[in-house]
Structures are given as structure tokens and as C-alpha cells.
Design brief:
By secondary structure, this protein is mostly beta strands. 7% of the residues lie in helices and 43% in strands. It has a single domain, classed as Carboxypeptidase-like, regulatory domain (Immunoglobulin-like, Sandwich), CATH 2.60.40. Strands 2, 3, 5, 6 and 7 form a five-stranded antiparallel beta sheet that branches. It has a four-stranded mixed beta sheet with strand order 4-1-8-9, with no helix packed on it.
């Protein structure tokens, strides 16, 4: 599975931490990506930066799209989410499955 961080401006000089089932799997700066290996099956991912985090994203590892590619997950902390990190910190960080 690929995890990519968008070219976001919130937390520009900080890393977003990505977790799978509660365990840290990677840390990403803006415009970085990581290849993450997880056992086949269903996993819950979330991303955090300081006290702000994303909601959980359930993903099935081992599933491929019609073109044979593994899933890609995008995480980001857009500039407008800086206020959200104070008003709604549990959902300020974005996480989404790309291409589906």
C-alpha cells in the first residue's frame, strides 16, 4: 500500500504520522510518500499531527484495483484545517483512499 502526503500548508515543517491499527507505520513531510506493508485483511488507518488527527479509514489490504495496483491513501493538513485543529481536533487531518 502507498501512503502519500499532499503538498499541504498546514504544519508545513512538521511530519504527519500515519498509524495502522494503532501502530505507527510512517511519518511524512509535504510531498513525501511511503510504501507500507501490512498483512492481508482489514485495517483501520488514521493520521496525526500533535493533537489534531483524522477520523479512522478502514482499508482492505490485499485488494487491488482493476489495473492491478495496490491501494493508495492520501493524508493532508490543509491550511484551512489549522483552525479546525482547535475547533474539531479529532477530524482536522484529512485521510482518503485515492482512485476509488
Amino acid at each position: 500500500m502507498r501512503v502519500v502526503r499532499a503538498n499541504d500548508y498546514g504544519g508545513r515543517f512538521r511530519r504527519l504520522k500515519v498509524f495502522a491499527d494503532g501502530a505507527l507505520v510512517c511519518e511524512l513531510k509535504p510531498n513525501q510518500e511511503a510504501e507500507v506493508r501490512l498483512a492481508a485483511g482489514v485495517h483501520v488507518l488514521h493520521a496525526e499531527m500533535d493533537w489534531a488527527r483524522s477520523p479512522g479509514l478502514s482499508i482492505t489490504v490485499g485488494a487491488v484495483d482493476p489495473e492491478g495496483r495496490a491501494p493508495t491513501v492520501e493524508v493532508s493538513l490543509p491550511f484551512k484545517a489549522i483552525l479546525a485543529s482547535v475547533t474539531r481536533p479529532r477530524t482536522a487531518v484529512r485521510i482518503r483512499l485515492m482512485g476509488r
